Every structure is written in C-alpha cells, then in structure tokens.
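Researcher: Please predict.
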Amino acid sequence: MKFLHWLTDELKLLVGVTVYFAACFTLIMVLKQLLLAQYGIRFSGLATAMLVALVTAKVVIVLQKVPISRWLQHRPAIFDVVARTGFYTVATMAALLLEKAFEARDEYGGFGAAVAGVFEHRDVHQVWATIIWTGVAFMAYNAFGVLRRELGGRELRRIFFSSPVARS
C-alpha cells in the first residue's frame, strides 16, 4: 500500500512537471515556426517537444532530489535558483551541441571536427535561442520550486488561483 501511495505521488509530480515543460517547449516550437516562416521554411516539432518535455521533467525531478552544496544551504533562495538554473542550462547546452555534432559527424569528417563545426553551422543561432529559452523555463521552474518549498503548495495555489476577495 505504501508503494502504491509513493507511485501515485511520483506520477502526479511527473505529470505536473511534464505539462509545464511541454507548455514551455511547445512555445519554443511555435516561436521557431514563426521565425522560420519568414523564410518560407515549414517546421513541425511538436512530437519532439513532447518527448523532450517528458525526458526533461524526469531528469529535473531526479536532480531536484540531489542535495545542494553546504555553501548554498545558508544563502538566500536566489542562489539556489541561479545555481540549479545554471546547472540545468549548461547540461541542456551540452546535450544540444553534442546532438548537433552527432548529426553532422559525416558532414565534417568525424565527431571532433563536428563539435567545432557546430559553432560555425547556420543553425547555431537556433541552438542558442533554444538554450536561452530553455534556461528561462528552468529559471521559472526553479523559482516556483523555491516558492513552493517556502510557502507550501496549498498557499501557492491559493495565491495564484483564488480571487483577491477570497484571499482577504
């Protein structure tokens, strides 16, 4: 029975975090579609956005359970937000750049040359835009995580989803 309760809680958390990142990544895909439309390029990456949202959600949930260093424990919450956002964004950047290099390894004559070539490729601006927007999504997620930890989930829901009259 205890396992079932744990599994239910984990699934609720996974669904919630996945929905958040799905919304963020869908927005990134829509922005990409709008930017490419001016050049007459059609782009559809909704399925990719959903898959990446699911993987990102699970990775973020696991990484949230990793205790932050002792140095950050006695600092204001902004240090936690910035450190986690920086870590998640750098990891995302590495994954995206390695993915692009892996795709282009034949074009550049090897993986090492492809890693360097990614920075010279015409798609590098799209990669940077994706990294920046993903970093913003991580920052918002981490900030709300700190608020939820400090205020509690019930209080956070009350603040955002009740009318001002009901809060008085």
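Model: Residues 2-37 form the longest helix (36 residues).
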